[in-house]
Amino acid sequence: MTLRQAGRLLLTLAGLLLIWQGIVTLGELPPYLLPDPQAVMVRFWRDAGLLLSHAGVTALEIVLGMFCGTLLGCASALALSYSRRARRWLLPVLIASQAIPVFAIAPLLVLWLGYGLASKIAMATLIIYFPVTANFYDGLRHTPHGWLDLARVMAPAGRRWAVLRQIVIPAALPALGSGLRVAAAVAPIGAVLGEWVGSSAGLGYLMLHANSRMQIDLLFAALLTLAALAVGLYFSVDASLKRLLPWHSPNPENLDLD
Amino acid sequence: MMSGFPWFTQATFPEAIVAPLAVHLCAARLTYSGAALFDGLDLELAGGSFTGLLGPSGVGKSSLLRLLAGLTSPGISGELRGGDGQPLQGRVAYMAQQDLLLPWLNVLENVTLGSRLRGEKADAQRALHLLEQVGLADAASIRPDRLSGGMRQRAALARTLMEDRPVVLMDEPFSSLDALTRLRLQALSARLLAGRTVLLVTHDPLEALRMGDHILIMNGRPATLSALADLPGAPPRDPGDPAVQQAYRAILRLLEAV
């Protein structure tokens, strides 16, 4: 991040804080509805250890969910693009995995997998499975024809695996990257949802806990920590993708009209 | 006599190590949405000769070339074999209008793509020697997105030569280049492809005249092939030569006559 970007981020945060403070001061809202930003800051300071340990649990759930979901999604996309049978059997499952809301099966997953990490990882995995699979599958199906023609002239027909590894998969990596960016943005939803349904740790658990005890400032502190975690996850995924796929650079103009 | 055309004055340097191979195509047929673009077409390429194939857009030149390259698609068929009676499979190199360089590989890796696809060990020494011959010795470790259009097409030429096949099929490989770069690449290709059986599809009669031992004109619907008789001298021909210009006018007349 450049100095200018950091400056813009700070300015945005300061602006949001100012609006928040303005609403609290001018609206004369009771503190159990919207806490004073200063009170939240004090909470941050006093309960930093508590927030961090719960954030660690949530972060672990998200990262492991990302890992499992990516692995499962990539394997599914490869199977879909290389087997007609897989398309016939797996495609309905894939669509169902997206159509059934995770909210609806969250209690079931907790019942089956328990209150610990496993049910949250399963939830995060489930929520990112579709964007990863759909994007990667799309990328695998749209290899530029010219490259495949070249490969067909160069190598005998039996070298399908080599063509897959050398051309088709690398060509689909930018599409997989788009899927991973979406995954990074939605994976926290799965983890926190799992924590709401039943858990003994994590930021979602902490928020529920604070809410039931009217500790609205702690709830806000946990919420802000979660937001920071999600934004941090997105930008680290984005940065690593840019580093791993240097040959796939976006248009510098970005279609700006201003 | 050659003073107006300096790039042809370089000493010829046959790169070919392979024995010349003739190409026979019988009863080639292409139907496109019910109508025959060509039917019962025969084509003979003498071993080690350079043939330019001219014709109006949409007449089926590229499809004919793809048929020769073994890139069959629905609606196209024909009986194809080498001068030794064996199939052409694995003895053809293909160069398209787009350079088809893989953006995630550097120039050297692109040039050795064929051996990697076939699971053979790439001869880096030979690849570097070829890159030197096309003037890209310093660009071996650069990614294609950092190269100019002419450099990219030269890298594609090196990749084509690296395949070391007796038959080389080229589909308008120079048409997207500026005039000067095109002249240089034509000279370079003529020099490096000497001894191979080359079929060059082109829109540019002068390109065919400059480089071709034979010129074929593809015309009509269903299309037929006719050889241009009485070509003046041997290639490389000087476009300023009155005899060449006369042949140019004859080609234009043939192209216009449908």
Question: Describe it for me?
Answer:
- The complex is a heterodimer of chains A (258) and B (258).
- By secondary structure, chain A is mainly alpha-helical.
- In chain A, 81% of the residues lie in helices and 0% in strands.
- In chain A, helix 3 runs antiparallel to helix 8 (160-197) and helix 5 crosses helix 6.
- Chain A is globular and about 75 Å long.
- With 258 residues, chain B is of the alpha/beta class.
- Chain B is built from eight helices and nine strands.
- Chain B has helices spanning 61-68, 107-111, 113-118, 124-133, 149-162, 179-192, 205-211, 242-256; strands at 23-32, 35-45, 50-54, 76-82, 92-95, 167-171, 197-202, 214-219, 224-227.
- In chain B, strand 1 (23-32) and strand 2 form a beta hairpin.
- Chain B is globular.
- Classes of the chains: A mainly alpha (258), B alpha/beta (258).
- The A-B interface holds A 146-147, 149-156, 159, 162-163, 166-167, 170-171, 173, 245-249 and B 66, 69-71, 89-90, 92-94, 96, 98, 100, 102-104, 113-114, 116-119, 143, 145, 163.
The general outline of chain B is globular
Along the chain, the helix and strand elements of chain B come as EEEHEEHHHHEHEHEEH
Poorly predicted spans of chain B: 1-16
What characteristic shape of chain A results from the CA principal axes? Answer: globular
Q: Residue-averaged pLDDT of chain A, rounded?
A: 90
What's the alpha carbon Rg of chain A, rounded to whole Å?
A: 22 Å
Kindly name the structural category of chain B.
alpha/beta
The total count of strands of chain A amounts to 0
Intertermini distance of chain A: 23 Å
**Side-by-side strand order of the widest sheet of chain B:** 5-6-7-3-8-9
This entry's quaternary arrangement is heterodimer
Key phrases:
heterodimer; A: 258 residues; mainly alpha; 0% strand; globular; B: 258 residues; alpha/beta; six-stranded mixed sheet; 9 strands; 22% strand
